[in-house]
Amino acid sequence: MAGREQKKSGGGGKKKEVKKETGLGLSFTKDENFGEWYSEVVVNGEMIEYYDISGCYILRPWAISIWENMQTFFDAEIKKMKVKNCYFPLFVSPGVLQKEKDHVEGFAPESDLEVPIAIRPTSETVMYPYYSKWIRGHRDLPLKLNQWCNVVRWEFSHPTPFIRSREFLWQEGHTAFSTKEEADTEVLQILELYRRIYEEFLAIPVIKGRKSELEKFAGGLYTTSVEAFIPNTGRGIQGATSHCLGQNFAKMFEINFENEKGEKAMVWQNSWAYSTRTIGVMVMVHGDDKGLVLPPKVAAVQVIVIPVPYKDADTQGIFDACVATVATLTEAGILAEADLRDNYSPGWKYSDWEMKGVPLRIEIGPRDLANNQVRAVRRDNGAKTDISRVFLVEQVKGMLDKIQQNLFDVAKQKRDACVEVVKTWEEFVTALGQKKMILAPWCDEEDVEKDVKARTKGEMGAAKSLCTPFEQPELPEGTKCFASGKPAKKWTYWGRSY
Amino acid sequence: MAGREQKKSGGGGKKKEVKKETGLGLSFTKDENFGEWYSEVVVNGEMIEYYDISGCYILRPWAISIWENMQTFFDAEIKKMKVKNCYFPLFVSPGVLQKEKDHVEGFAPESDLEVPIAIRPTSETVMYPYYSKWIRGHRDLPLKLNQWCNVVRWEFSHPTPFIRSREFLWQEGHTAFSTKEEADTEVLQILELYRRIYEEFLAIPVIKGRKSELEKFAGGLYTTSVEAFIPNTGRGIQGATSHCLGQNFAKMFEINFENEKGEKAMVWQNSWAYSTRTIGVMVMVHGDDKGLVLPPKVAAVQVIVIPVPYKDADTQGIFDACVATVATLTEAGILAEADLRDNYSPGWKYSDWEMKGVPLRIEIGPRDLANNQVRAVRRDNGAKTDISRVFLVEQVKGMLDKIQQNLFDVAKQKRDACVEVVKTWEEFVTALGQKKMILAPWCDEEDVEKDVKARTKGEMGAAKSLCTPFEQPELPEGTKCFASGKPAKKWTYWGRSY
């Protein structure tokens, strides 16, 4: 049976059994064994189930509800920008895929799948032949399309749930403008939406910046991104990217239009995307040794209400109070549920919902019932508060806001503590060894970045540029590049990355 | 260039050119050449673009917005039923796919794609191994999951946009219960939602019924469906299906649970789906020789406002009135847009928006401006009404409701006119020749249905049972089967179908 096989092959499968049987927590800690901790927490938190094809994962409702929360926000925002949703085919004909060498490099699922036609790794080559057909005159511009879909990338050896999977879900926006100015403006509007997804929804601090020539999207003009950082592994992670493609694809696919003056011109294009990777970053940044920690803004259940009966107590009264509490909170638009299962102890339920990362737990026992209060326990810091049921809604709303803010503040504190400013190669190597996110003055030469990669190769993986932040510290006259000693042009973040 | 190739290979491509250049209407009529009319209207109406892989189509924003309107309704309804969304992988490992012979028959994309792993045609075999892992006790039931995704079915020769495509979008619900009663109940709850999508949103009358043993979902216990009918082709079309799988898959995948009595039991399962085919049925039923006709409830634009300036008239005043009218309607939650393009005549714009099927057109000319009124023209019947701008919102809302209702009434009238009740084989053959949807008394024997198919084979395609309607007319004692002469057990709909 695949289900059984999967448990052996599927890594996390076994560990899940443990939990099923005992309800106990994690067998690895975040600090001592981050990798094992991560794959255990996504499984035990019921976000992921390992699948019997390596690199493919089952996204369970607990994960999809988070995805849908971000999607609702982003889809509404891009619709305000007059972006329209569409759906292009999953399959790419090889002719089109071969159009552009740079672009195809790194994207070649068909070679592994041995299919005559390829499955989209991204849709530039799928869509743009039709852009050249649809766009005739300046009145056809701007053309702004987006699609929510699955894409497949087969080429890699060490898959990680959410972070690097062979199939994943994303949105990909593809827009065409008559002027570079319009394209440049949109690139940053979209990047700001990505920042908001990370900072306002997932409570994760990110750095907005521009990718180096070596790290930019193949075939594009320039790439901007939001970069997150995972302190435990000392690795940066590209959170989402907003690319200006310039006119490269327009040339390739002959996307021309007649401008106001009646002259033939070429369009300026952007493409931008964020994926289910966002969820993995959230787990890595906020999760702890008790399991997931979900920011209230994306949690499917914001408050879990648990009855704490005692043998001689009014059990029925306690259960009724739990149901009434859920009703009051739901009425107020708070996502609350009661766990009235009779076959588990309150303690078991506490760990169970802590594992799933529910932001706030409400306990109701005999004393609470007597005092017309509830006991609220925060998932993020364990703080316990007694709340009078008279002020239930205001208090719970306030706590959820505090949790959302606190998760961001703590994450930012930890991230900032990892940032190190260096000026020399020696400082750079030391900081890299300390798993830092390194801000260094750079001459901005491609060969120098290649050289940095070569000189830092090792089992941990080489260092590379993460991004050149839009917020640039002052660069004193005569500052030298940390790696080449040549005059520095800019401050750039460097480090190992996912 | 794929874009160019596509125009030659892709059928509809060329015709699109015609429109682009001239803005004229369709070159085929619905009655004289339905097939050509259909592929022309989906392209010229900008719902579909032909793609350079046969059987794959580009779903343009005009189509996706309709899909999203139905999705918003259905997703909210199933969430009320406590169904949770998830996402399972696109790829199926052959081991799992081979599990069940009956089921696999007809589903074998990998044979054509030559991939070592298959791409899901539907997800029973993808999901159920994990159901067997997740379901342990009666407290794990019911398990109700749904996913919105793409599926691929390669096996067929004559693809048709929306109706039969190699890749399409759908939702697939997969639920497991501890009792058959719960499963039976859900099958009908979901079928009712499908009826509402067709009748309340798409304004298409459907018949709820049960499929014959020959036509039911392979491997299931029984299949219910909503059946629509296309008068022009005289073909029935399966609108959506809600299957009770019984315990067949539970046996296959060992999906067992411990019931309240502590005994090992097997779950009862359902699966149910509707796809982008719904959009094709809508086009076929409501479209006319001027193009698409969209029901207001699914239209991305419900009202198009067009200025009708005259040389000596106050053009600016007219344009302002158009903008103001859109603002007023938008304010009231009506989806309205103004077509202020200066390079097209009002007449050209009329045909353009008629082609796209916008339910209501509002014209504003000098006379309207003078009389503080607008001219409203219905897409469904061409009726023109002058509306005082004082009562704009109420009147427009009322007209949109009337259009929605009228589309359904007219479609029902046409459908009903095609229904023929027959008692004998001779009557059956005659009615089939007249492209009827035939209601006939049947002995309900599989061999007899096979025999009917064999005896009606021909270039038009064989007749088969469409469904046994839940609303059964009285069946007089001693009524004989129209095909076998044996005692009839029920009234069943027959005909050719898609």
From TrEMBL, chains A, B:
Catalyzed reactions: tRNA(Pro) + L-proline + ATP = L-prolyl-tRNA(Pro) + AMP + diphosphate
UniProt-listed InterPro entries: aa-tRNA-synt_IIb, aa-tRNA-synth_II, aa-tRNA-synth_II/BPL/LPL, Anticodon-bd, Anticodon-bd_dom_sf, Pro-tRNA-ligase_IIa, Pro-tRNA-ligase_IIa_arc-type, Pro-tRNA_ligase_II_C
UniProt keywords, alphabetically: Aminoacyl-tRNA synthetase, ATP-binding, Ligase, Nucleotide-binding, Protein biosynthesis
EC number: 6.1.1.15
Superkingdom of this protein's organism: Eukaryota
GO CC terms in record: cytoplasm
CDD domains: ProRS_anticodon_zinc (cd00862), ProRS_core_arch_euk (cd00778)
SMART domains: ProRS-C_1
UniProt xrefs under NCBIfam families: proS_fam_I (TIGR00408)
Name of the protein: proline--tRNA ligase
